[in-house]
Every structure is written in structure tokens, then in C-alpha cells.
Amino acid sequence: MSPHAFSRRLLDRLATAHSVVIFTGAGMSADSGVPTFRGAEGIWSRFKPEELATMHAFLRNPQLVWEWYAHRRAIISTVQPNAGHRALVALERLVARVSIVTQNIDNLHRRAGSTTVYELHGNIERNYCAKCGSPHDVGVDTASEGVPRCGHCGGLIRPDVVWFGEMLPEDEWDAAVRAAGGADVCLSVGTSGVVYPAASIPVIARRAGAFHADVNPEPGPLADGADEFIRGPAAEVLPDLVRRLEELRTPSILTAPEEGH
Ligand code: OAD
Predict the structure, then answer these.
(1) In CATH terms, is domain 35-78+125-161 a member of 1.20.1600.10?
(2) Ligand 1 neighbour 35 (Cβ under 6 A)
């Protein structure tokens, strides 16, 4: 694969950045084999969000919703972080503060080794009681056993993900807004940018003066407002970008001081 063309402005801003915020969506994990939500092959082309990803749906048919999340948890447990996730880990060696703000619930950024990850839509590996809020551990293969019940109050256990109509986790959101407001560069990666409030993260970063580049095989709403659009899959663009930055930071042999002087 040929290297991507990155603007001088983006490379200069990244090379001097103290703080970078990366805003990721389902496309980030597409190359790991996790299906995206929108588009011809997306999850929402086959299922209706209101039948699966709302509290109302869960109360109406807990077993169906639980099985659907158990199925997705099983898929996610078999996949691995891709070269894009790993490139973002490598970026931490080059920039003082790298904050990942993700809409993904698949835990792949943390599994890859990123240290600062804000999960705006929750994490499918965690569960809690819908009645009393206590956290609850469940294994991967739980679909056949029915919806687990809380050991404290007997309430139904639900995945710790944000459903339509629910608030984002306040601490994660506040931290994400702070990271965006203090960023020198914002990269949005693999998101259609249509679900709010999450999609305002790049806007907050831009308003605070950050350079914003959008990475996606197809331009979408976020590309319109961005300073730069980089066309391509995350697993190719991000390793390329980090490689270019590493080259920029390696002192050229021509400018090295001569021995003995
Ligand atoms: P979408 O499915 O809406 O968008 C996925 C984006 O990834 C699209 O813009 C694709 O063009 C792009 N894409 C596909 N393959 C890619 C690749 N290999 N590399 C980079 N980009 C690629 O997913 P999100 O934007 O994450 O919310 O969706 C946002 C929210 O909507 C999700 O968090 C979820 C969903 O409903 C909740 O469940 C609350």
C-alpha cells in the first residue's frame, strides 16, 4: 500500500503538539472484523435501534436484548486490535498527551495498550443491575442462560452501554470535553459523526483552536467541517501517519554535528 499524502500543516501541527485528541467510531474497529452501524453492511441496516438499544426494548423483551448483546460480546471477544489501534499506542511515544475519546464499546483501544481512553457509549465487557446499579461480572457465553439477576436486589442485569435516550456517562463526557478543549490536534477516525452529543467533540476541539483531520474511506459530515480529510481505512492511514511523524523526529544525518567539533 502506498503511503498517504498528509499535508505539511498537519505534520507540523502534530510534530509540535503537546496534546492530541483522537475521536473514534465503529470504522476504527472495522479492520478488526467488528461490524459498523450504518451503511449497507451495518448493524442498523438489519436491526432497528429502538427494538434493541433502548431501555423500553429491554423492559419489553429482556431476553432478546440480552441475547443480542451476548452475541456481540462473543464476536468482540474473538477479535484483536488492528494496526490502527496499535499506531495510536505508538503515538504516545511522540506526543506528551494522547487522549482517545471513543464511541466504541469494544474495549479494543485499551486492549491495544492506549493509556487514556474515554468511553462515551460505555463498554460491552461491563454490566450492571438495571434496578440498583451494582456492577455485575458475566462471562462471554451467557446467552443460553437467560438474563442474569442481581445478587443484591434481584433486578435484571444489563450491559453497561449507552442506549438511545440515555445520558452519556458524566465523568467520561466531562473528561472528553476537557481533552478536546485543550487539544492542539484532533483526529476523527472511522465515524459517521451523526450521533450527538459525541459528534460535537471535533467541533469543541476546532473552536478551541485545534487542527482537525478526519480519517475515513468515505467523506461524511465530519469531513465537511475538518481542516483536512484523509481518505483511507484506519488500519492503513494511522500507521502511515505515525511513521511519517517518527521520520520527522529522527535527526537527519546531514545536520548532525561532525565528530570532534
Ligand atoms: P457508523 O456505523 O455510523 O459509521 C462508521 C464509519 O466508519 C463510516 O463513516 C464509515 O465510512 C467508516 N468506516 C468504515 N470502514 C472503515 C475503516 N476500515 N476505517 C475507517 N473508517 C471506516 O458508526 P459510528 O459513527 O461509530 O451508538 O456510530 C456512532 C454511534 O451510532 C455508535 O456509537 C452507536 C450507534 O448507534 C450507540 O449505540 C449509542
Answers:
(1) no
(2) no
